[in-house]
Design brief:
By secondary structure, this protein is of the alpha/beta class. The chain folds into two domains: 22-200, Rossmann fold, CATH 3.40.50.10390; 222-486, Rossmann fold. It has helices at residues 2-9, 61-66, 70-79, 89-92, 99-110, 160-163, 207-221, 262-272, 303-310, 386-392, 410-415, 427-439, 444-454, 461-469, and strands spanning 54-58, 83-87, 119-124, 136-138, 156-158, 196-201, 233-238, 240-242, 259-260, 280-285, 299-300, 316-320, 323-324, 327-333, 348-355, 368-373, 396-402, 470-474. The longest helix has 15 residues, at 207-221. 52% of the residues are buried. Bound molecules: calcium ion (CA) (3 copies). Residues 336-338, 340, 342, 344, 347 line the site of one calcium ion.
């Protein structure tokens, strides 16, 4: 049981903010019997298949009426051969519904639509309780039964619900959706996507903020082809997660080895970025404290260095550090006060690596794609979560982030040969496939589909929950090399 708890908890922030962000329970706890439909594991239908490139935007009437740029966005996509349809409650129904009831209505309607679209973009309030284009709250780790000491590690918010519009996600009708080993039986949860999905949040009906985000995305699509060199630059900012001998949770054994998240980026550099690929990179690793990174880096890992370097322009950014919705930290064993070679808790300190407030400093930075190896950064029920503020300020055009405590499997990368072990789906393995595919010119959302098809084939509980908690924020049809040259 202990390892079952530790696995998903590996990246949980020591910040107590982790425990303070649980969404309000949706009021409708019952299953919607009319939602039942044949479906289940549908591996014969692996995602985007429509020969015509097409995007369905699911929004609301208020958003469509309030936004200046949603139609411009659609027109820009059309110039690039992507047909965009915008749907509202006039199409999917349930005009007064919010939260789960709304999610069920949208999904039911999608059953008659999904075969016509490659891409699904969700534009609205993601809150699982009251959102108008909500994420669905799911219980993949219902087995943990509040075992995480007051931190919610049982549930997450997910958009995977919409990309798999067939199948009953609450097979046993107990109001807890997507329980592993329960709701994933025949006719139930299916995580082989039928569409590539992305999400752009709208909070408090603020369509001006939506338009700021869309403006950045449109600018990215219209970049001058001579200005794309930065897109093949990659920035790594990787912290330690744990130190050898550290006791992270009371009543658990000491951590058996240092966990330096730079291990994964070093593995990626060695196996996926040979010089002939022409990718320039900058590494920011831990240089402070008793245990520092054993890998070389171009700079020391600090928030100042991350912001300063990011502003120089990077098409790909991969960070690792304990996270909360609005803050990621680096963890430093500052001093061995009692000189015993063991990092006691009063010797370990965390420092900000990136915070929601500091993302404003990145306004005007050319957009890139971010993978956040952190807990909770994708918990965008919190309106100023990092995954959102980064795209609102344009520093990111796409973010892969988790709505729950994510895990990192650094030891696997330390021992791994040149071939990626695909047995598990987790954020680092997704990051490998994602950045590799971006460099091949593939669309961001389609790469998330590919990761779901390729990784964690055995449907183990850890892979199952991470397929639900890891979501893509941004326009799912964007590629690394989008530019004004794409206009037909
Ligand atoms: Ca259930
Ligand atoms: Ca499916
Ligand atoms: Ca000590």
């Amino acid at each position: 049981m202990r390892s079952a708890i530790l696995a998903p908890m590996l990246l949980t922030a020591s910040l107590m903010a982790c425990g303070a962000v649980d969404p309000v329970q949706p009021p409708d706890a019952g299953a919607d019997a009319a939602d039942a439909a044949p479906g289940g594991l549908d591996s014969s239908d692996p995602g985007p298949i429509s020969p015509e490139r097409s995007m369905l935007v699911v929004a609301t009437n208020a958003t469509v009426q309030g936004s200046r740029l949603l139609q411009t966005f659609a027109a820009e996509k059309a110039k690039r051969g992507i047909r965009v349809s915008v749907a509202t409650e006039d199409d999917y129904g349930g005009p007064d519904e919010r939260g789960r009831a709304r999610a069920l209505s949208i999904r039911k309607w999608l059953r008659s639509q999904y075969r016509s679209f490659n891409y699904l973009m969700l534009v609205g309030d993601p809150g699982t309780g009251y959102g108008d284009v909500p994420m669905l709250k799911v219980w993949p780790r219902d087995d943990l039964q509040n075992a995480c000491g007051g931190i919610d590690c049982e549930t997450s918010g997910t958009d995977a619900f919409y990309t798999n519009p067939n199948g009953e996600w609450d097979l046993n009708g107990d109001g807890r959706y997507a329980e592993w080993g329960v709701d994933d039986q025949k006719g139930g949860v299916d995580l082989y996507p039928e569409m590539a999905v992305g999400r752009i949040p709208v909070y408090f009906g603020d369509t001006e903020d939506l338009d700021r985000t869309l403006e950045h995305i449109i600018a990215y699509m219209n970049a001058d082809p001579s200005q794309l060199a930065y897109r093949k630059r990659m920035l790594f900012a990787k912290a330690f997660a744990f130190f050898k001998g550290e006791i992270f949770f009371p009543n658990t054994p000491p951590v058996s080895a240092d966990v330096d998240m730079a291990t994964t980026s070093e593995w990626f550099l060695r196996n996926y970025l040979p010089p002939e690929r022409g990718v320039a990179f900058t590494r920011l690793y831990e240089r402070e404290g008793v245990s520092t990174s054993r890998y070389p880096s171009e700079g020391a890992l600090t928030q100042d260095n991350l912001i300063k370097e990011w502003k120089n322009g990077y098409g790909m950014i991969w960070w690792g550090g304990h996270g909360a919705p609005t803050e990621v930290v680096r963890t430093v064993w500052t001093v061995d006060k009692n000189d015993n070679g063991i990092p006691e808790n009063d010797e370990i300190k965390t420092f900000p690596l990136i915070r929601t407030e500091t993302t404003a400093e990145l306004e005007g930075t050319p957009g890139g794609f971010v993978v956040a190896t952190s807990c909770y950064v994708g918990r965008i029920e919190v309106p100023d979560a990092l995954s959102y503020t980064l795209i609102r300020h344009g520093a990111a055009v796409g973010v892969i982030a988790s709505s729950a405590p994510a895990s990192a499997d650094e030891s696997a990368f330390a021992e791994m040969g040149p071939v990626l072990d695909r047995d598990r789906f987790d954020v680092d393995r997704v990051g490998v496939l994602f950045f590799d595919g971006l460099l091949k010119g593939q669309a961001a959302g389609a790469l998330m589909v590919k990761a779901r098809l390729d990784l964690g084939p055995a449907n183990d509980i850890d892979s199952f929950q991470e397929k639900l908690m890891l979501n893509f924020y941004g326009d799912p049809s964007l590629t690394l090399f989008d530019s004004a040259a794409d206009v037909r």
